[in-house]
């Protein structure tokens, strides 16, 4: 039963990443946010294939999984998400060089930080992950406040609850294993993958609500983010 729930949670995250990532790119031309959604979905796909093939820790897929994990926890689900969402909160549009630079930074961070998995010094990157997650959580709390301010109150509550759940998972990840969980952390990953997939879904809806509000109030033109290309 646990294995089935794990697969379903992973499939949900994969779907949310590819489906809503594509919408972020096609509807709004937001490549940083859309590509980060793709990264999360690709990470989930890698995890799914690894699990189906038997979950061998000596498999290259296992090493790849920790690269994606380090990429998103250090830069992707922190700096890139903030930069992407600032497009509707502050009308911030990074240059192409900035977009390329932040993904290059994420790749370097992923390659460097993955080496600490299973190492006695893993508490160092783990602490770093918690700190950058906490800083990102502050921005996402601001996002919820912006949603509340435009009277998208149900979505504001949903975003706040999802962000809080993700913050708990970030702390639990390395420091507070779930009692009775197996060596693979199956119970933890059921909650984690389900929450991460829900984040991708809720933050897409949040982006759309703020974009539509900005257009309706004249804060930005409807054509500014390719809304005419809705699919």
Named CATH architecture: Up-down Bundle
Annotated CATH topology = Rhopdopsin 7-helix transmembrane proteins
**Can you count the beta strands?**
0
- Averaged pLDDT, please? 89
What portion of the residues fall into strands of 2 or more residues? under 5%
Radius of gyration: 18 Å
Spans of at least 5 consecutive residues whose pLDDT stays below 50 are: 224-231
- Helical stretch tally: 7
Approximate helicity band: over 70%
Q: Give a short account of the largest sheet.
A: none
Q: What order do the SSEs take from the amino end to the carboxyl end, as H and E?
A: HHHHHHH
| Global morphology | globular
Whole-Å distance between the termini?
A: 36 Å
CATH level 1 name: Mainly Alpha
Q: Which structural class is indicated by helix and strand composition?
A: mainly alpha
Overall tally of domains: 1
């Amino acid at each position: 039963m646990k294995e089935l729930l794990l697969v379903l949670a992973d499939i949900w995250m994969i779907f949310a990443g590819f489906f809503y990532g594509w919408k972020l790119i096609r509807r709004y031309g937001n490549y940083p946010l859309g590509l980060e959604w793709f990264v999360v979905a690709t990470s989930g796909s890698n995890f799914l294939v690894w699990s189906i093939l038997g979950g061998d820790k000596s498999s290259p897929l296992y090493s790849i999984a920790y690269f994606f994990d380090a990429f998103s926890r250090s830069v992707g689900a922190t700096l890139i998400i903030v930069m992407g969402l600032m497009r509707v909160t502050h009308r911030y549009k990074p240059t192409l060089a900035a977009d390329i630079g932040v993904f290059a930074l994420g790749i370097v961070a992923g390659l460097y930080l993955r080496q600490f998995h299973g190492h006695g010094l893993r508490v160092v990157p783990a602490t770093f992950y918690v700190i950058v997650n906490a800083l990102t959580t502050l921005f996402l709390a601001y996002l919820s406040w912006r949603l509340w301010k435009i009277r998208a109150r149900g979505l504001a509550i949903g975003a706040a609850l999802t962000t809080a759940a993700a913050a708990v998972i970030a702390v639990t990840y390395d420091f507070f294993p779930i009692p009775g969980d197996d060596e693979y952390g199956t119970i933890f990953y059921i909650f984690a993958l389900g929450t991460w997939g829900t984040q991708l879904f809720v933050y897409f809806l949040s982006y759309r609500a703020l974009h539509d509000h900005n257009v309706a109030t004249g804060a930005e033109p409807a054509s500014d983010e390719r809304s005419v290309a809705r699919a």
